[in-house]
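Quick start: what a row looks like.
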Amino acid sequence: MQPPARGPRPPGQLGELARLFLRLGTTAFGGPAAHIAMMEDEVVARRGWLTREQFLDLLGATNLIPGPNSTELAIPIGHARAGFPGLVVAGACFILPAALIVSALGWAYVRFGALPQVAGLLYGAKPVVIAVVVQALWRLFRSAVRGWETALVAVADELVVLGAAAALTAGAELARSAAARSRHGVAALLAASLPAGASAGSVALWPLFGFFVKVGSVLFGSGYVLLAFLRSGLVEQRGWLSEGQLLDAIAVGQVTPGPVFTTATFIGYVLAGGAGAAVATAGIFLPAFVFVALSAPLLPRLRQSRVAGALLDGVNAASLALMAVVTARIAGAALVDLPSIGLAVVSAVLLLAYRVNSGWLVAAGAAIGLAVSH
């Protein structure tokens, strides 16, 4: 991939990036696999900002550094489009809508001790997400699998991931039970009666910031890994949260659009109000901007090297295999009856035959889910 040209960036490029990633941050339900699929649809299929091969290289690179994968894909897309200013704009605009939504939920949680019902929203959004991800996987696999070697890497990686998924069943069950509790609007604890955790405003901002900088700097993996890391640091070691609060925070990160790591925003609000939400959000996402800013200029050089390029091809294939496994797991929970299956099929037809915008399609699915659930 060619690095972005030097010199001033036309204001239109930054405006395009801001509008796109603000919309994605507001409508991108479904976790990193869905976010990646929606970005591919927007920046490759619709706008042609990147070739499919360039997009795959960015995707592979995000899997080599710690932090939130979909955010670390938005950031280099911005860099490729508009240099360093684009890097900042794309990443910030993808994070901001989710952070604001989660902060509002944090306020409701502290004020009322309960989370809003979101079961209907997810019922409609998830089948559309499945269609969006499957479409993206089909397009990307054709570009990523360049021979029997990369095909073998993809298959082997998928088997490894499936085995790891079986080993993490207990963690997955914890996260699913937390999401179920939130979907039915039942909070584990009232903010006024949290003997096993801290109350809003009781944690200083600098220690909170330092903890989440460390999390963003070292954490690889999914939301289930995040759950284990936060439980060890916040519940067991520091005693800042109770088990119930942590599970509610993980659930909020999973059921809201945008990055799953906005779990930190919710935790920050519970522990230190609005300032805590801002500090925790900045802390967990700051390392991603630093890592991408340091690594993005090196990616073209890696592609020019035959050995490094072959390594990147393998990482790309493995990344898509991981997306396929995650999508299969989501599909098992999302396609639960004929209406949800029908919604997925209709969405696939609209995507493939009429090229309906994936972001608006997910939003429409969420609205349908809310309508039929009342």
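That is the whole record. The chain has a mean pLDDT of 76. The CA atoms of residues 30 and 257 lie 7 Å apart.
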